[in-house]
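<purpose> Linking amino acid order to shape
<body> The protein record starts here
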Amino acid sequence: MDLLTVSILALGLSMDSFAVSISCGLAERKISFQHAVKIALSLAFFQGLLPLLGWFVGSEIKDFVEHIDHWIAFALLSYLGGKMIFESLDKENTEGMANVYSWGNILTLSIATSIDALIVGFSYALASPGDLFEGAIIIGGVTFFFSMLGIRIGKNVGNRFGKRMELLGGIVLLAIGFKILLEHLFS
């Protein structure tokens, strides 16, 4: 995948972390800069690590599924994007966080928001030769930026944008799935 596609993918993947970060800012309006960095680094680390894990798994089975790889990548990204869109429209999904400073909560949030990155890494291995290390760094960096921004917005603005960002992230993942499918069908 080219740099533009990886950057757009990073933006889409970071939207879950962005929405979670807004919630962290809402839950603790007096959150310190050090705590914000702690949360953002954890979110970024897992968002960058799990695509690599997914890529390694996908690389091992590539020869077995190469003739249908674009359909698999499309299905996984479409499922994930659709799930994000559905969750963003779910009015009853308003779970609060008890303690945004605890490592248990931070790790849980980090892993939960990065499951989609694992699937994307698997899809990336099926759709594109090469490695994902540069992509993982970009994904982690974009996630860190949007996590810090989300915490700041949560502190200052409120809950107004959280669900909309998750919706946008789902739309971006769907668009990337369609792009992968169309590239393979028409190349």
Remarks:
- Residues 3-69+97-162 form one domain.
